[in-house]
Amino acid sequence: MTDCVVLAYSGGLDTTVAIPYLKKMTGGEVIAVSIDLGQGGEDMESVRQRALGAGAVESIVVDAKDEFAEHYCLPTIKANGLYMKQYPLVSAISRPLIVKHLVQAAQEHGGTHVAHGCTGKGNDQVRFEVGFMNMDPDLKIIAPARDFAWTRDKAIAFAEENNVPIEQSAASPFSIDQNVWGRAVETGFLEDLWNPPTKDLYAYTEDPNLGNAPDELIISFESGVPVAIDGRRVSVLEAIEELNRRAGAQGVGRLDMVEDRLVGIKSREVYEAPGAVALITAHEALEDVTVERELARYKRLIDARWSEEVYDGLWYAPLKRSLDAFIESTQENVTGDIRLVLQAGRCVVNGRRSNHSLYDFNLATYDTGDTFDQTLSKGFVELHGLSSKIANRRDRDARNS
After folding, report:
1. Which of 113, 196, 236, 395 could potentially form a cystine with 69 if both were Cys, beta carbons 3.0 to 4.6 Å apart?
2. Catalytic residues
């Protein structure tokens, strides 16, 4: 049987050149699969035609924007998904969706191999390949950039030798990955940690120092799902897109961080995620009002662990599924409205309301009408500190003996 390679195709130089390269290397056919995740930019039909022009026997474009928003971004909102308390998993949550559609294409078209353009230094090789292993372990995996030292220079040389049309003038010094949830930028001069990002690096956000008037808005949630902005009903995708525009115009969502990669190295990454940051900020604020204290404390631990699982490419792993179930169970009462002020790169909560609120004004107030029985507090404090009081007394006695 002739080999058939299903390639995750972005339309850029590396994956375009990979089509004739994979054909030559395997002696088989190549099917290009491109996923529209709301990344914007080039028309997807142009991307499809470029793959065919490079020699793909089939070029498939999947409009997965709503699927991505509903089944990948929304769980990230509910989990307040931030790796290392900062990164909203922009690339990490897109990889399992790409894997899903590549495997489907392989099964529908008789694919024997799947291929991606990741290097051996990054996280994405793990996210892709562990995903393939989980969804269809019979598929063989090809990673030219990693396994055959496929560098950019080699890709250009191969293109010239084999008459593959490329646009070198459009080449960027950065490695960029983007979708509707955000934008990730690395390499180039950013690899020197002392170099600040330049203005031309950003595309989703305006300069936060422009002095724009503040933008105040209300995000409404139902069971953890953003359902309206300023009273207008929206889908999850529409909520992300509108907040990308409005929060992005205020410079919200810029991140410059050194993160711990799964492969054991530290890397400098610059992110733009205005909609993601606004939605997670609002969701966390509503949980503060509606989720009981002990559950909220434990959920914060689970949120961090969920983010690590997803970052580490374990979207389809048993632990991730169990964490999903726990997180979903916490969202029943996360219903209400959060008012945000967006300005100068900041996203500030200044209003909260919910019919499921656990905030009791009569217990919280210090004014007349206070119903909190302060006479109970003396005994509570004594009992709360009793065990540490006894332990410290023992330790003092031991030091003094």
Report:
1. 236
2. 14, 95, 124, 175
